[in-house]
Amino acid sequence: VGLSNTLIMSLVAGFGALVLGVFVGVGTVIGNAFGRMALNGFIGLMRNLPKLLILLAIYILFIQNMPLPREPWEPLPGVFFTNRGLSLPSFDFGSGVFVWPVMSRFGLSGGILIPTQFVVLCVALVVYHGAQIGEVVRGGLQSIGKGQWEGATALGLSTRLKLKLVILPQVYRQVLPSLISQFINLLKNTSIGLAVGFADLMAVASTTINQAFKPIEVMTTVMLLYLGIGLLLSVSLNFVNQRIRRGLR
User: Fold this and answer.
1) Measuring CA to CA, how many Å separate 37 from each of 19, 23, 25?
2) Which sign, positive or negative, has the C-alpha torsion 109, 194, 46, 184?
């Protein structure tokens, strides 16, 4: 369970951090003066605060400001936020229908509940690593020669098409090695979820140690699991990097 929670968190937070990082990196280069200043401030703030402090701050804000289960906040139809977490519709494979969260006597019932711990850890990892990836993307954009921008302008491309067709494909080749390091760091940083009670690999290992009284065996197993996943991720992404470089030659 701990291993699966760690992998799911890594995938979800990794995708969110990549999307946020590309948005932040592009905004710091081609945005207006106010937007660039705000995004640079965001990057500086995230890069100079401890990850654990960011996580605890988000957790406290979430717990204090999210409504009680009997008074859920519904930003979208069938999507509810409470201080217990995020409630979403789920698919029942037995009956072949979607089950929607509905109000019952003691709060929401039905659907799937994503616990508060998962939500806040995911948000903390996304904003922290999104800022790191944003800085990487900004460096990649600034490494692209001025002639590439001018050539795309001469072709009559809009700013969106310049980025999509000309600039970002070159940036990906430049920044992929740094992105690999960020994704591996994100995988390891899921362990800070222990501070808010998220049942990741480290939290389950801590519980196992308290019950089995075999810390050396448990921690060795956890270390080997992190090492194995990290090496597998590194080899896979490096393979993708090599294929991209060969295709762009």
Assistant:
1) 20, 14, 12
2) negative
The span from the CA of 216 to the CA of 212, in Å, is 11
- Two structure tokens written together for 139: 């460096």
| Residue owning tokens 């362990």 | 191
> Terminus-to-terminus CA distance in the chain, angstroms?
43
Tell me the average confidence (pLDDT) per consecutive run of 10 residues in the chain, 249 residues long.
92 94 89 87 91 93 85 84 86 79 77 89 95 90 81 82 82 83 91 89 89 90 92 86 68
d(Cα 159, Cα 185) in Å, to the nearest integer? 32
pTM of the model: 0.86
